[in-house]
Amino acid sequence: MKVLLRLMKYLRPSTKWVVLSLSLLILGTLIDLIAPWLLKEVFDNGIAKKNTSVILGLTLALAGIQVIKSFAMFLQGRSQELVGQNVVFTLRKQMYEHLQKLSFSYYDKAKTGQLMSRMTGDIEAVKNFIGFGALNMVGGLLTFIGTIIFMVIMQWQVTLLSMSTIPLLVFILFRFNKKVGPAWGQIREQMGRLTTTLQENISGIRVVKAFAREQAEQVKFEKRNDENFDTNMERAKLEAKAFPMMGFYGGLTFLIMIWLGAYYVAKGQMTLGTFMAFQWYTWGIIWPLNMLGWQINIMQQAIKAAPRVFEVVDTPIDISDPANGGIASAPIKGNVTFEHVSFHFADQDQEKEEGILQDILLDVREGEIIAVLGATGSGKSSLIALMSRFYDVSEGRVLIDGVDVRDYELDGLRRKIGIVPQETFLFSASIRENIAYGVPEATQEQIEWAATKAQIHTYIESMPFGYDTLIGERGVGLSGGQRQRVALARAILMDPPILVLDEATASVDTATESAIHEELLEVMKGRTTFIIAQRLSSVKRADRIIVLDQGKVVQQGTHKELFEQDGFFRNLFEMQEAASVG
Ligand SMILES: Nc1ncnc2c1ncn2[C@@H]1O[C@H](COP(=O)(O)OP(=O)(O)OP(=O)(O)O)[C@@H](O)[C@H]1O
């Protein structure tokens, strides 16, 4: 009920269309109720009294109201669809906007397939109810009640006696509603899991093929498909049990009405016209009840689908602008301070697990080049993520130019930090659009300048369509290193005071890496740059190197200072030296 009430709130912006649709529905129902009455008059006042002008007049009246009804139903269908589409539009917009605002913590756990299924199938189920089922239910109810009233006025004994089967019909419907609800809940959930399996399979198809796991994947998918098939069959079984029974009791109503009606006509307690009208009216009782089965289906789907959408929309946004809107980021120069920073992920058990970062103290001057080294999983990427507020610190503060990052206007803060992430994501658009992603208004010269700095300009020029070359969603047509260079150009183009290169040259060969670093020297000038790297060759230009180990800074200093100390840095140096000699 709560879900339905919440869904009804989405109708508010379309109030005038809802009112129009309802009014037309009432008009259509009234016409349906008047038509059998006119038929009764044709028999009783036309045929019985052999009055042809009454017959003609009433037939014309019947035709007239049918024309009006057709027109009303056309308009009603249009306005009803508009109401449904408006609700879908608003829900989809709300969900998409909310997804844009949710933080990394949410996406760490979110399943893409589930989100896609909620955005499409679940919202569609809601639309079917709002834009079709709900109003039809109201229409059915009006027809049902109106028909009984008209019939009782005409001949109450036959009406009440022929309706003796109705309580049974209502009982069947009640039971059906109770059982079909959970089935629809399962079906919606299974559709989400099915889409997730499909999405993961397609995204990971290269791994699937490389490990020859197609057969196993097929089995996994089949299992999900089977589950969905079985639940749908269970639901169909419920329908198969309920609907024919309803049809049977409906038919019985009709039979009783004919039998009793004929009996009453024969006894002279009912006119032939009323008898004929009753045959028509009976459908006004049977039809809404039979339709109610389908309408319950539509309603239950919506009741189970809507909470899946609301769950996303209701997820609290944990990282957002400060309440006062935040400090403008325009003057940021690039001084970065980590002040006793500790960090753990939201789902970590703080009692049992150590923090990902522990009591980090770091002061980076504007324009300084800082290399961050450390073993895999030591917390390098996490440290950097705190600057852009991809996550918020658990303790301490991260300051940029002396201001806590949580006090800046969020978008502005992020635009001041150009990041080349470990994993490059390119959109299915042209190379130009991909490079200009952060600065869509950039000129061709600016884009080419950034591409040159990232050592990718010459390659782009050599492609048949140059900067207009379209790349697929995984950067089809580009190698791993080339993709990384496009991502590098994207960050450079933002002209940020703080630049973060997270293993940004890990996928390029050593010659290209050294060329990129030569070019980057100029780019890095005047910018605070964080270089996360495993290769020492990438960090040799750094002013200072910090070494992380299990979330703590264990070494800090210049190349020379660290080389003179025993520790991770010298070990790494010696290992890489040995490897290059070997
Ligand atoms: N979303 C997450 N939830 C929980 N733990 C996480 C999450 N992301 C990373 N971790 C853990 O946090 C630790 C630090 O990860 P981080 O990515 O910062 O390491 P890193 O030094 O950058 O590693 P690499 O060099 O392999 O990229 C790792 O132990 C990792 O398992």
TrEMBL record:
PROSITE patterns: ABC_TM1F, ABC_TRANSPORTER_1, ABC_TRANSPORTER_2. InterPro entries: AAA+_ATPase (IPR003593), ABC1_TM_dom (IPR011527), ABC1_TM_sf (IPR036640), ABC_transporter-like_ATP-bd (IPR003439), ABC_transporter-like_CS (IPR017871), P-loop_NTPase (IPR027417), Type_1_exporter (IPR039421). It is found in: Cell membrane. One of its GO terms (cellular component) is plasma membrane. GO terms for molecular function: ABC-type oligopeptide transporter activity; ATP binding; ATP hydrolysis activity. Transmembrane segments: none annotated. CDD domains: ABC_6TM_YknU_like. Coiled coil: none annotated. SMART domains: AAA. Its main location: membrane. It comes from the Bacteria. It is a multi-pass membrane protein. Pfam families: ABC_membrane (PF00664), ABC_tran (PF00005). Keywords: ATP-binding, Cell membrane, Membrane, Nucleotide-binding, Transmembrane, Transmembrane helix, Transport. This is ABC transporter ATP-binding protein. It comes from Paenibacillus baekrokdamisoli.
